[in-house]
Design brief:
This protein has a single domain, classed as 3-Layer(aba) Sandwich (Glutaredoxin), CATH 3.40.30.10. The chain contains nine helices and seven strands; from the N terminus they run H-E-H-E-E-H-E-H-H-H-H-H-E-E-E-H. Helix 1 packs antiparallel against helix 3, helix 3 packs antiparallel against helix 5 and helix 6 crosses helix 7.
Amino acid sequence: MKSRFALMLIALLPLFAACSKQDNDAATPAVEAVAAPVDTAPADVAPAPETAAIEAAPTAPIAVAPPSGPAPVAGKDYVEIAGGQAFAPVAGKAEVAEVFGYTCPHCAQFQPLIDGWKARQPADVNVISVPAAFGGYWVTYARAFFAAETLGVQEKSHDAMFNALHVARSLNLQSTPEDIGKFYAQYGVDAKTFASTMQSFAVETKLNRAKQFAVRSKVEGTPSLVVNGKYLVSVDERGYEAMFNTVEHLVARERAPAN
């Protein structure tokens, strides 16, 4: 099913592009029947206590082949983030955070690729998803991501959400929380409960953390990859292969002290 979804997306969408904040301004905003989001904290504010590194028992270094391909160049292949911090640090692991948007067609195209890349990573590389909340419908679907996470259905519904928006078209930019709740009902969550969870304090807190992370990491478009909160890797005309090559070199750099 995933391979079929990937083939359909590749046929429908142009390669090597990204969605940006400006795309949100140019489109009709979604109807968002939720409370106005709280202002994002300044980029230099310390992360909330829940972002503190999770203690893990020491483990032996994991042998991993060095990355192939040309070494990336700062300022060209990636941007160094001054004072950057990982989104959800785990002791002994290098974090790769994919900043994405469900409504971004390029993120939909990228999803099967990041799925495959994630599956090949060693145990000490933590690949996570962080929804962008640039405004309008971006915020609506970021809330959906965090509501699904809160209710324990995010992982099994993640790829299906892209399919619903970009292939099946059962959801769109104007879908309300109630509409989105009906989508998640197929995963055993009550639709009304899901819609109300999108407006909850827990989701609001997670949403603001995601906003703060994107601002601090200088994310301007999606998909973007942030390595350990220190390096921003964005898509350019060379495409996704070059993007992954850069990330693998940066991950190796972050793993080096432990090895």
